[in-house]
Write a structure and sequence with these properties.
mainly beta; single chain; 52% strand; 114 residues; 1 helix; globular
């Protein structure tokens, strides 16, 4: 039986470093490698929904491994030598209800960036 294996993805973690002149938060991005992230093509329905709901072209869906505590909302990620940006809400399953053999419990949408 074939085993599905994820890959390392660089997640750019945002840390608030201050405020600008209009009192908006200013962030610094720090790269963190997250192992065993599943990178997959979106279905036609997922791509159409992303375009209709967010006005963005969905490039990939990422499967986030169980136990990962990083914030994947509206940040940059890097894999395949290219940079992407996450968008939309994270889709999360109930970890306890997923099979133990399945090491992923959240899905994140990404668009091409830069």
């Amino acid at each position: 039986m074939a085993r599905i294996v994820g890959m390392p993805v660089t997640l750019y973690v945002k840390t608030e470093t201050g405020r600008d002149a209009l009192n908006n938060p200013v962030y610094e991005l720090s790269p963190v490698t997250v192992e065993n992230v599943l990178v997959g093509q979106p279905t036609t329905d997922e791509a159409t929904d992303a375009l209709n709901l967010y006005g963005k072209k969905l490039e990939y869906m990422l499967g986030v491994p169980k136990g990962d505590a990083h914030d994947w909302t509206d940040t940059q990620v890097e894999f395949f030598g290219k940079r992407f940006r996450t968008f939309g809400d994270t889709i999360q399953g109930i970890e306890a209800n997923l099979p133990r053999q399945l090491p992923w419990h959240r899905k994140v949408r990404v668009e091409r960036y830069g």
